Task: inverse folding
């Protein structure tokens, strides 16, 4: 709070309304942000947070309303104008050029050249290094973006904005894709930034983070401004209630249940990552009917490779995978799907959805070739849209319009669409990777219930998540993965956060 | 969305504005080089619309363009850039000439056999590029360009073969009459036909051209392609791969198979263009000095069509009309026919760079402050 300069309003958005066709994404929203403040935006999936920020960043034109930057009325028609005004934005889904290096990405569009117009990469690299030291944003300037972790990519995005002279930094769900460790580092970075007089607008679904780092919080519900509160004066429960408009329970009910026979059996599995290094090393694991097996671990310990190997998207070097007793080790993705495995993939935009397909087309991604969605190679669009309408209704995907392209759904609603599709497949084994990433707490509650429901229907659920809370809340057993192997399995009822944390860091598997 | 994708899927409005811009820029250049643009465009328009036979000629010329345009569009829907329509056209034409000359079959059957032989040969030709892409990850742009030249020299080689080459010519023997798709070909040369045509000058004019069934077949194929893409599981798979191959793979679609299938169908379409051209217009293949350009024009047609199969019909007609009408400004007012290439180039340029069109209202707004407009927004949340 001590960094806030209450006399200077750097951003004032007044009566902002944004209408897309027949969806009102923003409805007369107000937002005032002071210099040096961390201002959180909170709201359900599809509430209109990204839209509001895209307006501030000049990507969308508001239908109505006015924007004042540093007290001056400004028409932010393009992102270039926003950048000139000192506004920078890190999007929910990154916008980096993957084969380029970190420095190349940062200077893209603002390249320093010497006399002949030749790129001066040496100078650029120095600039980037000094900038990163100033704010504690350490990156490897010469690494290619496709080779670095998501957390690092995010730092690149932040540096890119700072390099362009941003004083006001918009972070759209920056923590959704980060590990707990990376989140702590990001929070530290945010504090450094405000110390230097920068202003931060932060979108997040995690109330804990708002409590930790934000000074003020504006709550939006269905495009409307609900309240702006002083964060230190409210509890997490109060924030949640304001956001959803009802009480939310954080714990889920789970009945005692006997597990059944083995469904998925993995023996001595070895898988290489993209660089050809063994990411999964001789891993063995069993998942039973009627249980949720949580896989806890720090990001990059082979979780993604494990899932891709099981689902046939990545070659298996050694070992075998059995599903319901049938060997599926080197099977094609289609055969694996047909052996009743469904997956909620970790990267929804890369794997989970064809963004340029309609929501309806996406809903049959694994089943388009089956009746009733097609017959003898001819699609039945009527059946497909009927089916999609039902899913949209049951899973409360907004907006309720199956002909829209998946691209225009909000991040959280994209995730809901995938979950709806995979659960409706009614698999024997449901594999879920970060299923609640980017979801609001109401939706998280819903997903957790859905997972438990699958378990209660005697299905097997394999839950891979970086969120220890989530794992501990819903799992029956917890397997800890470390450097590509399972280092221990504990009963969730006896699990204790500290001990799990220790195992995840590679220590103290056995007591 | 990546650049390539944006290139081929634009709105109808952009297309119309781009075409207008093409004509405006063409007019400016004509004016600057000392020709009256109104006169030139007048001649062009009359050159296409004045007489039925001109219109017929425009339609005839559009047939191969529609099909090569479809070929590029089809591959593109699977995320592939088929620069190889040219070579596939050559293979189709060569096969058609070969099968049309050597096989002796009854009328309609011969046409069907020639057509499918050519389409299959060209499908295999296109499939080579698909195979290399799927198996070895070699970019299809490179392989299709190489295959164009291989096709080019293959045709020139075949045209030297003694049994195939017509003596004292640079071309093959003409195909059998049974393989021709020229409308009323036998009748219009018969005694009765000539008598009748003498009294019906309009029809005489029309039938003097190579009026043939090709255009109708091309339209049917365009509709078929639209249907395949939008209404079949095959189309679903190919489009899924084109939009996001990772998601397609995750959904159980074989990306490799789709790539090969898409290139084969694209090849078949360009090959069909070659076959119809041989059966309807040229009746033979000749030694090539340079590439004829049907396949390359197909790229421009597909751009104007905006990745829509039905759009290919209109774009093919437009393209053909411009070329045919444009050829007439040369001998009536001695204006350079290259102006047509410039107009087409400008149209494609504007379509490829919609931001240029964004700039137009801004420029206009400087003169008329109340004109301002903004185009469709893209979700980035
Ligand atoms: N370009 C667009 N066209 C049509 N509708 C859109 C467009 N962009 C956003 N919307 C709709 O506007 C609403 C608000 O979306 P927005 O992305 O702002 O939500 P959000 O609050 O960021 O949600 P999340 O937490 O899930 O990211 C949604 O219903 C969305 O589908
Ligand atoms: Mg959002």
Result:
């Amino acid at each position: 709070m001590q960094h806030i300069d209450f006399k200077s309003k750097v951003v004032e958005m007044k009566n902002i309304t944004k209408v897309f066709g027949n969806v009102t994404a923003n409805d007369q929203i107000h937002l005032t942000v002071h210099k040096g403040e961390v201002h959180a935006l909170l709201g359900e999936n599809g509430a209109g947070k990204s839209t509001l920020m895209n307006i501030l960043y000049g990507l969308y034109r508001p239908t109505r309303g006015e924007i004042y930057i540093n007290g001056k009325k400004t028409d932010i028609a393009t992102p270039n104008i926003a950048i000139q005004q000192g506004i920078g934005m890190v999007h929910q889904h990154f916008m980096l050029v993957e084969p380029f290096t970190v420095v190349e990405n940062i200077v893209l569009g603002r390249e320093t050249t010497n006399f002949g117009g030749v790129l001066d990469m040496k100078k650029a690299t120095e600039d980037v290094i000094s900038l990163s030291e100033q704010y504690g944003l350490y990156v490897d300037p010469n690494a290619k973006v496709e080779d670095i972790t998501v957390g690092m990519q995010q730092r690149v995005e932040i540096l890119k904005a700072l390099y362009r002279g941003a004083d006001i930094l918009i972070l759209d769900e920056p923590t959704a894709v980060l590990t707990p460790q990376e989140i702590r580092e990001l929070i530290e970075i945010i504090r450094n930034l405000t110390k230097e007089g920068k202003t931060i607008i932060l979108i997040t679904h995690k109330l804990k983070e708002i409590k930790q780092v934000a000074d003020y919080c504006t709550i939006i519900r269905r495009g409307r401004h609900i309240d702006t509160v002083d964060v230190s004066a409210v509890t997490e429960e109060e924030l949640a209630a304001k956001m959803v408009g009802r009480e939310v329970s954080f714990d889920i009910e789970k009945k005692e249940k006997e597990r059944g026979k083995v469904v998925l059996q993995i023996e001595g599995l070895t898988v290489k990552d993209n660089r050809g290094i063994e990411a999964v090393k001789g891993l063995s694991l069993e998942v039973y009917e009627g249980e949720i097996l949580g896989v806890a671990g720090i990001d990059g310990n082979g979780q993604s490779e494990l899932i891709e190997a099981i689902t046939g998207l990545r070659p298996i070097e050694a070992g075998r995978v059995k599903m319901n007793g049938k060997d599926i080790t080197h099977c094609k993705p289609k055969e694996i799907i047909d052996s009743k495995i469904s997956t909620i993939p970790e990267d929804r935009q890369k794997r989970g959805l064809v963004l340029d397909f309609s929501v309806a087309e996406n809903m049959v991604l694994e089943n388009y070739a089956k009746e009733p969605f097609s017959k003898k190679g001819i699609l039945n669009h009527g059946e497909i849209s009927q089916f999609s309408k039902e899913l949209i209704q049951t899973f409360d995907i907004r907006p309720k319009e199956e002909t829209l392209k998946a691209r225009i759904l909000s991040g959280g609603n994209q995730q809901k669409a995938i979950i709806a599709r995979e659960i409706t497949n009614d698999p024997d084994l449901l594999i879920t990777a970060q299923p609640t990433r980017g979801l609001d707490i109401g939706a998280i509650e819903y997903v957790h219930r859905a997972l438990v429901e699958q378990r209660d229907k005697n299905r097997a659920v394999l839950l891979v998540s970086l969120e220890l809370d989530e794992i501990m809340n819903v799992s029956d057993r917890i397997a800890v993965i470390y450097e590509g192997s399972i280092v221990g399995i504990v009963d969730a009822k006896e699990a204790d956060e500290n001990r799990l944390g220790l195992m995840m860091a590679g220590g103290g598997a056995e007591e | 969305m990546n650049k390539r994708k944006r290139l081929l899927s634009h709105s109808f409005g952009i297309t119309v504005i781009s075409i207008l811009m093409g004509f405006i820029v063409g007019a400016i250049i004509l004016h600057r080089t000392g020709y009256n643009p109104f006169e030139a465009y007048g001649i062009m328009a009359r050159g296409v619309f004045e007489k039925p036979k001109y219109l017929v000629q425009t339609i005839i010329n559009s047939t191969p363009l529609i099909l090569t345009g479809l070929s590029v569009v089809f591959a593109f829907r699977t995320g592939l850039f088929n620069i190889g329509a040219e070579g596939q056209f050559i293979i189709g034409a060569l096969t058609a000439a070969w099968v049309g000359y050597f096989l002796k079959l009854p009328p309609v059957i011969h046409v069907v056999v020639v057509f499918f032989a050519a389409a299959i040969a060209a499908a295999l030709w296109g499939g080579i590029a698909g195979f290399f892409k799927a198996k070895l990850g070699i970019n299809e742009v490179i392989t299709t360009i190489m295959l164009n030249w291989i096709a080019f020299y293959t045709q020139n080689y075949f045209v030297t073969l003694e049994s195939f080459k017509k003596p004292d010519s640079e071309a093959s023997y003409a195909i059998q009459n049974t393989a021709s798709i020229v409308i009323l070909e036998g009748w219009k040369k018969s005694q009765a036909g000539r008598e009748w045509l003498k009294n019906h000058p309009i029809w005489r004019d029309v039938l003097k051209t190579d009026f043939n069934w090709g255009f109708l077949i091309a339209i049917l194929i365009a509709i078929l392609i639209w249907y395949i893409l939008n209404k079949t599981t095959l189309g679903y798979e190919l489009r899924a791969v084109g939009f996001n191959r990772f998601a397609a793979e995750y959904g159980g679609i074989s990306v490799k198979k789709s790539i090969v299938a898409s290139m084969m169908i694209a090849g078949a379409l360009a090959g069909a263009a070659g076959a119809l051209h041989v059966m309807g217009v040229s009746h033979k293949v000749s030694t090539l000095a340079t590439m004829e350009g049907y396949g390359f024009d197909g790229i421009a047609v597909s751009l104007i069509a905006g990745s829509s199969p039905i759009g290919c019909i209109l774009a093919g007609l437009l393209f053909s009309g411009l070329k045919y009408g444009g050829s007439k400004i040369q001998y009536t007012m001695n204006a350079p026919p290259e102006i047509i290439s410039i107009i087409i180039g400008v149209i494609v340029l504007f379509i490829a760079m919609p931001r240029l069109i964004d700039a137009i209202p801004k420029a206009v707004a400087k003169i008329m402050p109340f004109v301002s407009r903004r185009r469709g927004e893209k979700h980035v949340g």
